[in-house]
């Protein structure tokens, strides 16, 4: 399915969460070709529901496949193209000609949401994103391996006088990641 840039531009115009996501993609990129619901929540002012709605709308627009998290995997959008190129085109307004086939339904502003806009008549143009002129043509890609060197902090807990538990975590571990780890420990089976 081709990418529907008209729909993406409408999302960019109507949804502050979409503007934050595309701006973040241009500046930081996308890790492992996917954007998780939790990453979107951390990078924007979106609620969980708004993040899921936006990622599903990006799927409708042909940007990728939304996958619901199962068995420890997070809910996420797996991008089909280069997310930076898609974001650059949407933000710059450089939209390729679209086929005249039936287009997916235009997104409605999110009701009663702090980042929704009340639209009367034609939507206002999105604010322009100022990018420095000295950006390199080829932006560095983030590491794609799970074992990429990252700053870590080792945490040690004395479980018993003769037994210590150590775990190495990223220096920038989020509250959500810590909660997931705590839930995992709580769910360990002690019956053997």
Gross CATH architecture of the domain at 5-92: Orthogonal Bundle
Largest sheet: 3 strands, antiparallel
CATH topology of the domain at 5-92: Arc Repressor Mutant, subunit A
Number of strands: 5
Distance between the termini: 50 Å
CATH homologous superfamily identity of the domain at 5-92: Winged helix-like DNA-binding domain superfamily/Winged helix DNA-binding domain
Element order, helices and strands? HHEHHEEHEEH
Q: What fraction of residues sit in β-strands?
A: 5-15%
Helix/strand layout:
Layout: H1 5-14, H2 16-28, E1 34-36, H3 37-43, H4 48-60, E2 64-67, E3 76-79, H5 83-92, E4 152-160, E5 163-170, H6 175-186
Antiparallel strand pairs: 1-3, 2-3, 4-5
Helix pairs in contact: 1-2, 1-5, 2-5, 3-4
Task: Describe, in short, the structure shown.
The protein is of the alpha+beta class and 192 residues long.
